[in-house]
Amino acid sequence: MAGSVKQTSDSLSNSFDEFTDNEYITLIATAGPVLLLEGIFFLGPLFIMFMISTMAMENYNLIHDYGLSNFIDGITKHQNISAFKTTTIIATLSTISTGIIAFPIAYFMAKYGGQYKNQLAAIVIVPFWTNYVVRIFGWRIILSKDGVFNTILMRIGIINEPLSWILNSRFAIWLGLVYLWLPFMILPLYSSLENIDDVLLEAARDLGASRIAVFTRVILPLSVPGLLAGTIFVFIFSMGAFVVPSLLGGGIPFVGTRIQYEFGFGADWPAGAALGSILMFIVVLTLGLLLRHADLEELF
């Protein structure tokens, strides 16, 4: 009797060990909370957005008349084509600009920050202590016809009369996005540059490499993970921007403002949901192309 009980106990123990050693069970156990979170807060709303984008709307009510007409309108209507074109161009320019501006800042912090590296990194995120809507309103004051920017240019004699094209322009949107998302490029770059061993740089110089060669053949290749992570952040945030083009763009078509219009004054939720879906497809496609050249473990 005792032997039978022991045999049964051993069998259950072995079965439990096999169950826990199963790679799929291990994956679910470790990634389960994250997958649950993504399912509730990402896939759920995403599914609702797709459902709405295939429906129709009459008299402020959603009609269960499913179809793809909203997607067709999203990629064929002139105002939507213009919005996607403007958004993609400005988001791309903003991403490139933040990379160019952030690199020397991040490099200085990583290589010359000394014992104050962490403090410098903390200073980078200080602007986020203030609501970003307030900060963008501040840029309206700076860029306005009677604002600080025009006043300085007139006092130093560069212009004779205020420039009226600065505010409510594509330039203003670009400037606002670069200002807003610059920290998200600086910090990943700083992390990558800090991990570059100074011995590698000294070895390159000892072997006769010029400063340009050291940068292009050592520093830049080793900083690609940070550069790519920053690119992903800035590009995604810029593509989905709404506040900056609303406050600084003066009605210039932007996808974020088009979506807001369709859900607001336009009272056409399916059209807004379709635009959001198309925007997400563009972002996912771009990320897929970027991540083909990156190792996720090095990025995050």
From TrEMBL:
Q: Where in the cell is it found?
A: Cell membrane
Domain ABC transmembrane type-1, first and last residues per copy: 84-291
CDD domains reported for this sequence: TM_PBP2
List the InterPro entries hit by this protein, alphabetically.
MetI-like, MetI-like_sf
> Which UniProt key words apply to this protein?
Cell membrane, Membrane, Transmembrane, Transmembrane helix, Transport
Signal peptide stretch? none
Its name, as the record gives it, is ABC transporter permease
- Organism expressing this protein natively: Natribaculum luteum
